[in-house]
Write a structure and sequence with these properties.
about 55% helix; single chain; 9 helices; about 270 residues; mainly alpha; elongated
């Protein structure tokens, strides 16, 4: 008698059932021909992919907070990222250096992704939305710093604020994440004041002291923001926030803010072996 049933990983919760390969393929499961028992496989690793877990059956892929910054949902999404980096981020990198710009970009993006994972946990997302708003915040900090030497500083600041406002309004449309926008912008604003090399009040010793205090306060604020987000994400997750969705999508019609139609309930298996 030949045993043809093997462990089959089903659904997003990592449920394992002993099924035939034909049945497993029919329900879009992940078939394990090398094993005979469910205890010999890790279905959550099949669901999440990428690197294996440190502790089996416990998802701990924290690195997705920055790897998702380099993923895009299509050519249009990638094109928007390339345009922002080419026309905005490139000039800022020349001014403040590659290391500072990378720190601001990645820090803003990771903070935005973490906020997005907290407030809208059931939405698959990709792209550097928070990082791009961090770049916009850096441009605003630059305008504020060189305000006395600009010919029309209010016009320059108004243009940047208009761009930020337009993107925030676009964040109220489906599949655009305003939480990543808001937290990324605020984090980028603080990191810019802390890391931009030419921000100074004057040349006196008193000014250098004020500058050092500003750096410490901004970096401490960013650290506290990350700590608060991590505590909420790991220890007090938000799963049933009824109003959180309205900050990232306004339902103008019944199906305007449709979800991804994913069943998040853990269904009982039909037959257990």
């Amino acid at each position: 008698c030949e045993t043809i049933a093997r462990p089959c990983c089903i659904g997003i919760h990592g449920k394992c059932e002993i099924r035939t390969k034909e049945f497993c393929d029919f329900i879009n499961g992940h078939f394990h021909p090398e094993a005979t028992l469910c205890s010999q496989v890790s279905c959550m690793e099949d669901v999440c992919g990428m690197l294996p877990f440190v502790r089996r059956h416990v998802p701990d892929q924290f690195y997705r907070l920055w790897t998702s910054l380099f993923l895009h949902a299509g050519l249009l999404h990638m094109g928007i990222t390339v345009i922002i980096q080419l026309y905005l981020m490139r000039d800022m990198e020349k001014v403040c250096g590659s290391f500072r710009m990378a720190f601001i970009y990645l820090g803003s993006g990771m903070a935005g992704n973490l906020a997005s994972a907290i407030f809208i946990p059931y939405r698959a997302e990709s792209g550097p939305a928070g990082a791009q708003f961090g770049v916009l915040a850096t441009l605003i900090v630059e305008v504020l710093n060189v305000w006395p030497i600009l010919i029309s500083p209010s016009i320059a600041l108004g243009k940047l604020l208009a761009i930020v406002f337009i993107f925030f309004m676009l964040g109220l449309l489906p599949w655009v994440d305003n939480y990543a926008h808001m937290v990324g912008f605020f984090t980028g604003f603080l990191l810019s004041y802390a890391l931009m090399p030419y921000i100074a009040f004057d040349r006196t010793i008193h000014s250098r002291t004020r500058r050092a205090i500003l750096i410490v306060l901004c970096l401490a604020s960013v650290f506290l923001i990350f700590c608060a987000l991590l505590v909420v994400f790991y220890y007090t997750p938000i799963y049933n926030c009824s109003w959180c969705k309205y900050l990232t999508c306004i339902p103008f019609t019944k199906d305007f803010c449709a979800d991804q139609n994913i069943n998040f309930r853990k269904d009982e298996p039909i037959i257990n072996f």
